Amino acid sequence: MKKRNNKLSLIFTPIVFCLVMCLAVAAAVLPKYDKLSTLAGMFISDTQIDYSSAYENIFVPTKNSGDTVNAKDVEFPGVNKQFGKLKIKGTKVDAKLFYGDGTVPLRNGVGIYGGSFIPGYGKTILVAGHNNTYFNGLKKVKKGDIVKINTSYGNYEYKVTNTAIRDHKDKKAYDLEADHENLILYTCYPFDSLGLTNQRFFVYAEKVKGPKIVGLYE
Amino acid sequence: MKFIKNKTVGKILYIILSFIFSVCLIACSICSVIRFTVFNKGFILDCLNSSAYYTDLCDEITDDLMNIGDASGLDKSFFENFVDEVLVREDIQKYLEDFYAGKKLTVDTTNFEENLDEALQKYQSDNNITDASKKSIDYFISEAAKIYAKNVEITYFSVLQKTMLEYRTNFTIYAIITGVIALTAAALIFFTNEWKHKAVRYLYYGVCSSGLFIILVPAVVFASGILQKIAILSRSLNDMYTTVLNSLFIDMAICAALMFVISAVLLVLHAKFRKKVSES
Q1: CB nearest to B213's CB, from A18, A47, A51
Q2: B140/B201 same-domain check
Q3: Distance (Å) from the C-alpha of residue A19 to the closest C-alpha of chain B?
């Protein structure tokens, strides 16, 4: 009997020691669980990151050029997703329109700055593109030209009212809090020259037609 | 028992000593593993070499440079083979040396800027570009150098430098202190016990429970597949941090395995001493 107890203690004593230490660690960690869990959440995700430069296209052409479109019928684009096309008649500007203005959008087309709005919102739409690629054609844009934006939920037209060359830090070059729908396209300046400058070329346009998104806050 | 006459009190005292030995052995092992892995420049460099860090980083730098190249009148092919992996490796090694030496962390972009300037001059002469403004070219080079430096600086390292170096010193001290206590406890158990088979058994309790405790974290980490769920936006950084953590937990598992081997040896010794006692 004593021999059996000795054998059992060889198995169970280390396990009991380990459990006691686990309990001590748990007691020390539990009060900080929320903090640790938030920290871990910053680096751990259930979905694997897609590192490819491929992008998702949610743009399906529509004929809707009416006055309104319900918010529930609009698929709001995520970052780096193509959700439309942007074209300026009489120029070479004919590009895919993305949400976000990072590497993927600007490599494949032009992109809406995340701090501005998508067409139909009734606010400012700020679109960036590279002067060497998709926005090279902006150099030919003049007052009165029509910028067409096609999305899956509606087709929009904006009339160019002005162009300007501004410093890249000039906050007066755009008003993101405007209470009317307006489109601002911008790119680096000068065009077709080697090197980089602080100057940016801006094209300002006002909405002519296209459906307003309604029921946004319902 | 030489000093402890009461059998039950003696047992309790040896169990407590054995537990202290186990706790100190765990603390000493974990501190040593971390000290010689995460806080060790050679270990981090090995991880960078064994992961695809340098290749991925060169691709990311190229991507970022192509992005400003598109805004600077440069052909897409200009940056295709421009980023020199050898230079990137040298600059990162220098960065890590400064990091572990506690020096101010900066990336010397002189070589990168010289290479870029040379490549731009060749590009201009190949494409007959004569009207480029020096100011624009210089601004482009300085912006490209900023991109290069930002990529070479290992994210989170600059923020963690002071804390890491403090912890490195502390971990060394903790490892020494807990190591000395563990050895003292082991010596007390062994030399104060009249019956060597019992002394060896108490040592076995300590070593085996340490092994069990140390194996727990890597076992949970590897079984849950949490390392595959690490999601850092930069592929190179993701590779690097995953490799570092993977190697750290493998080292912990090796440490635990070593303790199980020692436990097995102690068990054999225990049986031998016990046999001797029963024979006599």
Answers
A1: A18
A2: no
A3: 8
